[in-house]
Design goal:
The structure is a homopentamer of 340-residue chains.
Chain A lengths: L19 E8 L2 E5 L5 H6 L3 E8 L3 H11 L3 H9 L5 E5 L2 E11 L5 E11 L2 E7 L6 H8 L2 H4 L3 H14 L1 H20 L5 H21 L1 H11 L10 H64 L14 H22 L4
Parallel strand pairs in A: 3-7
Antiparallel strand pairs in A: 1-2, 1-3, 4-5, 5-6, 6-7
Helix pairs in contact in A: 6-10, 7-8, 7-10, 8-10, 9-10, 10-11
C-alpha cells in the first residue's frame, strides 16, 4: 500500500501544493478507491462507502470544495482556515467539528503546538492539519490494518485520530517530569544558580501551555462518550472513554507538576536565603580572624613612653604568638560551630 | 453610503448633540430609510421592517423617547443612563438588554474601558455607547454589505456588535502578553530594578480589569446560544457559539498570564535574593583583600625594640611583596570560586 | 409628612425607649394611618391595607407583641433579638425573614457593621435595626413619594430597603479602593516603611469583613428574583435582579482588591529586598573608600629602617594625593556602576 | 429530677463501669420511667413512648445489647465502637446514624476533640460519647424543662444534641480570633520574635483541625433540613436550619481567620526583612563613625620625615577635634536620614 | 486450608510462572473447588457458583484465556496488561472493571505504588495485581472465614478487596503525619538546616502521589454505593459507603497535611530570615567591640610631637583600661539588647 505517495494529485496547475494528502473511499473497512476531491459525490452514490480525506494546510479553494461536497457550516470552515482555536467539539446538524492541538518537543527544549481540525459526518471524515510536523500517514496505515475496526466507520477513525494525537502528549509530559527532576537535583544538590530560577519559570510556562491543549479534551471526550451523538456508534463509545482516561491522567500529572514546581520555587528561595546566611556567617568569621591581630598590632604601635612589653627581649615573638594563637582559636571555634 | 454623516440630525434646537448617531429602517437586509426617532412608529407599521438605532452618550430625553417607542423597562433605561454596569444579559418580556464593556489600550500603556448597552426586540435594536472611542459606523457598513445575513434581523445585528467588541480584546491580550515577555527578559536577563516590580504589579492590575470585562461574557454567550431566547433565531445561535469560543479562549489566555505573572513575581524575588548573595560575597572578598595587607602593615608598625625584620636591608620591599602576593592570591582564589 | 417625629409613642410608661420608630398602615401606596402596635389587628381588618413597622433595637416585649400580631416563627424572633447573624433569607409558611448587614466607615478608617432584620408577610413588613447609625426614615419618605410603586406592597418595600442598604456599600468599597491606591503610591513611590505592611494587613481584614456582609446577598437576591416566592409579586422581581447586579459587581470589586492586595504585599517584599540590596551595595562602597587610605596609611606607619619614601621631601603630600586619588577613583567608579 | 445520679446501674457485676449514663422512657414530653437497657422492649410496648439512652465510652457488650434492641446496622455499631470518624449522616432503613465531633480548648492552648455518635429511630435516640469531657446531663435537663418541644420526639432530641455540641464551637472560634489579635499586636507592634512564627503555625493547625470538625456539618444539616428524612418531623426542620446557619457562620469565621493568618505570616516575613534592612543600616552607620577616625589616626601614624602637622603645637588637639567633628557630623547625618 | 500453595498450577510447561495465584469456585460462601483456568466453564455450569481468580502480573496468554471465559472487553484487558492507569470504575455490559492503586512505604522513606485491577461479573471476580508486594492471600482466608458474608457473591468480594487496599493507606498517611511532626520540631526547635527544605519538598511530593491514588476513589465508591449498578447487591452498598467514609477521611487528612506543609515551608523561610537578622546583629556587635580599641590604639599611634598622654607614667595602662572598659561596656550593652 503506497503510504507516502498519495493517489490524489498534491499540486494543481499552478504547481503550488494544494494540501490534499490523501482522499480515499472505504467500504467494509477496506480502501476501495483513491479519488480526487471533485469525484466525492460519485463515491458517495455507493450507499455503503465512506470517504476519508487528509489535508495539510490546504489552500482555501480546496477547503471550500470540501465544504460544498459535504455541506459543512461556514463558521467551522472559517475556524479551519484561521487555525487559532482551543480544543473543542461542535455539533452541527449532521456533522461534528472537532478541534485538537498537537504538541511536540523542540530539540532546544521548548514546546511547539499545531492544530488538527476534524469534520465528521455520517459517511465522511476530513482532517485538516496546521503546523503539525508529524503526518497522519502511519495512522491511516494502522487503521487499514484492522478492517474489522475500520468498518465501524468515521466515528472509529475519529477515535483513532484522537488517540494518535493524545498519545503524543505522554512523552512530552514525561520529558517535563524529567526536567523537574533535574531541577530538583540542582536545587537540593546545592548546585543552583540564577539560571535555576529561569528554568523553573520556563518549565511552568510550558506546563501551562500543555495544560491548555490537554484540559479542554476532558470535556470533548466526555461529550463523545456520554451524550447522544448519533454519529458515534454505540460500540465505539468505550474507545472514547479510553482516551478520556488518558487525558484525565495527563491532566493530573500536569497539575501535579505545577504544584511541585510552585513548591520547588519556594524551596529554592529558602535555600538561597540559607546560603546567604551561611555566607554572612563565613564573612563574619573571617572578619573576626583578621580584625583581632590588627587590633593587637594597633596596641603595640602606640607611642607611649612607658610600654614595658616593647622592651622585652621576646616581646615581639610573644605578641606574634599571641596573635597566631588568637587566630587559631577563633578558626577552630568557628569551624566547630559550623560558621566556617 | 454616507458612513460618517448620519441622516438623522445629531443636534437639537439648543445646539447640543443629542447623541443620535444613526437611526435607520431595514427590510430584507437592505437599509430602506433613515428616519428621526420620532418617526419610528410609522416605520414599524411596515410589518417586514426592523429599526437599528445607534446612540453615543445620548441625552436622557432621547433615551426616554426611545423607551416610549419600544416600551423598554425602566430599570434597563436607568442602567443605560448611569453606565456603571458589569457585562450582563437581561431578559425582559419581549426584549433583551445586553451590557458589554469595550476596552482600549492607552498610548501610555494602561487600559481604558467604555460600555455599550444594547436593547434588542423583535423588530428593533438600539445600541448605546459610553466612553468608547471606536465608533460602530464601520460595523454598520459591514453588516449592510452582507444583506443575506442582515436579513436575519436584530438577533444577527446583536451578534455582529458583540463580535465587533470582542474582537477588540484580542490585540489587547496580545499586547499584555508582549508586556509579560518584556518583563521576562528584564527579570531573567538580569536587568531588573525596582521599576520591574512596579511593572509586574501594573500588568496584574490591567489583567484583572480585563478579566472583569471578558469573563462575564462566557455566561452571556452561553445563554444566547443555548437557552430558549426566542429573539435569537435558531440559525443565528452558532454565531454566538463562535463568540463564546473567542471569549473562553481569551479568558484562558488571561488566566494563563495571571498565573505566569505570579510566578514571575516570585522568580523576581528569588533573583533579587540571589543577587544580594552575590553582592555579599563580592563585598566579603574585597574586604578580605584590603584587610590582609592592613593587618600586616599593622604588625610592622609595632614599636618593639627587637624586631629584626625592621632592620633588614630588604625588609620593606619583602613585606610589600608579601602583601601584594597575599592580595593576588586572595584575588585569584575568590575569582576561581566565583565570588568575584 | 412628619418624618422624624413618629406618631407611635417611642417610650413606654417606664420612660425607656421601646424601639418603635414608626408604625403605619398603607393603602394603595398612601399612608392612611399611624397606629400603635396594639392596634394592628384593627388595621388589618381593612382587606386592602398593609402595615409597615420600623423598629430600632426594640425591647423584647415589643418584638414579642409584633410576633403575636403577625404569628412569626420563634426562631426568627430569637435571631432578631440576638443579632449575630450572617445575611440570609428564610422562608417560613406565609412569611419571609431576611437578615442584612449594614456597614459604615468609621472616621478613623475601620469598618463597623450593624444588622437589619426584616419580616415580610402578605400584608406587613417589619424592619428591626441593630447597631446601624443610619435611620431608615429617609427611605420611608422616598417610598411614600412614589405611591404607584409603594402600592405594590410589602415586597416592594423589601426591595427599597435592600437597595437602600446595598447602596451604602458602594462608597465603602470605593474608599477601600482609594486606600489601595494610596498604598500603591507608598510602595512603588519608595516611601514604604514598616507601617505600610500593617496598613496592607488592615485593608485585607476590612475587605474580608465586607466580603462576609456582601457575598451572601448574591444567594439571597438570587432566590428573591428567581424562585417561586409568592410574597414577591411578579413585577417586583426585576428590581431584585437590579440589586443582584449591584451585589455581584461589588463582590467582584472586593475580590479584585483582595487579589491586588496579595500582589501588593508580595511586591512590597520584593522592593524591601531590593532596597536591602542597595543598602548593602552602598555600605560596601563606603567601606572600600575608607579602607583603602587606611591600608596605605598603615603601610607608611611601618617602622622599617629602610623605607626611602619616608625620607623624600614630598613623600607625605604625595602619599596624601595618592590616597585622595584612590578615594576619588573609587567614588566615581561606584557612582557609575550605580552602587552610590 | 435526679440529674447526675442515673437510675440505671452504671456498673455491672465485675465493677467496671458499663458506660450507661442514662436510659429513660418519655411520653408526651415527660420522663415516665428510668429503666435498664434490658427492659427497653417492654417500654416500647407502649405505643406512645420513646427511649432516650445516653452512653459514655460504653463496653462493647452494652452497645451490642442496644444494637439487638433497636436492630441497628453492624457498620454503624462498628463505627460507634472504633470512634475515628469524620462528622457524617448515614441513613439506614428505619434509622439515622449521625457522627459529631466535640471540641474543647485545653488550658495550655491547644484543642482536643471527642466524638459523639447518635442513633435515631422512630421511637428511640441513643447517644454515644467518646473523649468528650462535657456530659450531656445538662442537655437532658433542659429538654425535660420544655415538654411541649420534647414531645416532638427523637428528632427534636437530635436537634437539641447537635445544637448543644455546635454551641461549644463558638467560644473556641472566638478564642482563636483572640489569639490572632494577640499575634497581630506582636507582629505590627514590633515585638515579634522567632516564637511568633511558631505561634502562627500552631494557630493554623488548630484552625484546620476545627475546620475538619465543623465543615462536614454543613452537609449534615443540609440533609436534615431539606431532604425527605421521615424521621425528622416537618415542624422540627426549621430548627436544623438554625444549626445550619450557625455552622455556616462558624465555617466562614474559620476561613476568614485562615486567610488573615496567611496574610499575617507574609506580613511577618516582610517586617522581618524590614527590620533586617534597618539593622544593616545601623551597622553601616556605626561602622562609618568608627572607621573615619581610625583612618585619620592612621594617617598621622605614618613615619614620614616631613609631616609639618606633627610638629605644630596644637596639631594633636586639632586632629582630635577634627576626628570628633567628623564623628559628630556623621552621627547627625545618619540620624537625620533615619539610619540611626 | 492451603493458603499459600494454590491448587492451580503456577507454572506452565516452559517453567515460567503463569501468574495464577488462585482460582476457586464458591457456593453459598464455601470454597467448593480449586480448578485450573481452562475448567471455568464447567464450574459455571452449576448455577449457584461463582469463581474467584487471583492473578499476579500474569502472562498475556493467561489474561486472554480469562477474557475468553468471561467475555471481557478488549480495552479493559489492555488496561490490565499495561498497568499505568489511574483509579477508576468502568461499567461494561454485564461486567465492572475497577482499577485501584496500592501503596507501600519503602524502608528508606519514599512511597511505592502498585496497581490492582478487578473484573467483576454476575458470577466471577478476577483480581490482577501489578507491583504490589502484599499478597491477597490473607484477604481470601478472611473472606472464607465469614461464609454468610461471602455468600453475597462477587460484589462482596469486591468490597473486601477495596477495604483491604484502602486500609493500607491509613498507616502511610499516619507515617507522613509523623514526618511532618518531625519537621515541625526541626523548624521550630531551631534545628533546621538546608536538608529541612529538601525534606519538606519530598514530603509534599509523597503527599501529592498519595493523593492521586486516594482521591479518585471518592468517585469510584460514590458510584458503587449510589447508582444502579445491578452487580452490587442492595445489601452490600452500605459496605461501600463505609469505604467511601474512609477514603473521604484520608483525603481530608492529606489535604490538611498539604496545607500545613505549605505553611511550614513559609514559616521556615521566616525563621531563616530571623536567624539571618540575628547573625547580622551578632556580627555587628563583635565588629564594634573590636573596632573601638583599634581606633583608640590608632590615636595613640600617631606621631605628634605634643601628645602629653604618651609621656604620662600610667598613660599606657590607663588607655588599656579605657579600651577594656569600652569593650566591656559594649559587650554588656549588646547582651542586654539581645544582640549577643
Amino acid at each position: 500500500m503506497p503510504d507516502v505517495s498519495p493517489a490524489t494529485p498534491d499540486v494543481r496547475d499552478d504547481g503550488v501544493p494544494t494540501g490534499v494528502i490523501n482522499c480515499a473511499a472505504y467500504s467494509a473497512g477496506q480502501r476501495v478507491a483513491d479519488l480526487p476531491i471533485c469525484d466525492i459525490h460519485e463515491a458517495l452514490a455507493h450507499g455503503d462507502r465512506f470517504i476519508w480525506i487528509g489535508l495539510n494546510e490546504p489552500r482555501e479553494e480546496i477547503l471550500r470544495e470540501v465544504q460544498r461536497e459535504f455541506d459543512l457550516h461556514d463558521l467551522a470552515i472559517e475556524d479551519a482556515l484561521s487555525a487559532h482555536q482551543r480544543p473543542k467539539l461542535e455539533l452541527y446538524e449532521g456533522s461534528l467539528f472537532v478541534v485538537l492541538r498537537t504538541a511536540q518537543l523542540l530539540p532546544g527544549g521548548g514546546l511547539e503546538f499545531g492544530e488538527t481540525h476534524v469534520f465528521v459526518g455520517e459517511r465522511y471524515i476530513v482532517s485538516v492539519r496546521h503546523g503539525s510536523l508529524k503526518s497522519h500517514v502511519g495512522l491511516r496505515a494502522r487503521c487499514e490494518a484492522t478492517p474489522q475496526l475500520l468498518s465501524k466507520g468515521p466515528g472509529f477513525v475519529l477515535y483513532a485520530l484522537m488517540d494518535f494525537i493524545v498519545d503524543q502528549y505522554l512523552p512530552i509530559v514525561e520529558a517535563l517530569e524529567e526536567q523537574l527532576e533535574a531541577l530538583e537535583e540542582e536545587i537540593f544538590g546545592e548546585r543552583f544558580d540564577r539560571q535555576t530560577t529561569g528554568r523553573i519559570y520556563r518549565l511552568k510556562r510550558d506546563l501551562l501551555s500543555l495544560k491548555r491543549a490537554v484540559s479542554p479534551l476532558v470535556e470533548v471526550c466526555n461529550r463523545l462518550m456520554r451524550h447522544d451523538i448519533s454519529l458515534i456508534p454505540e460500540d465505539t463509545r468505550p474507545y472514547f472513554r479510553d482516551i478520556y482516561d488518558h487525558v484525565v491522567r495527563m491532566n493530573e500529572m500536569i497539575d501535579n507538576l505545577r504544584e511541585l514546581l510552585t513548591t520547588a520555587l519556594e524551596a529554592n528561595l529558602s535555600l538561597i536565603s540559607v546560603s546567604q546566611t551561611e555566607h554572612t556567617k563565613r564573612l563574619a568569621a573571617w572578619a573576626a580572624i583578621i580584625a583581632v591581630p590588627t587590633m593587637i598590632a594597633g596596641v603595640y604601635g602606640m607611642n607611649f613612653d612607658a610600654m614595658p612589653e616593647l622592651h622585652w627581649d621576646y616581646g615581639y615573638p610573644l605578641v606574634m604568638a599571641i596573635m597566631l594563637g588568637a587566630c587559631a582559636a577563633l578558626f577552630i571555634g568557628f569551624r566547630r560551630s559550623g560558621w566556617l
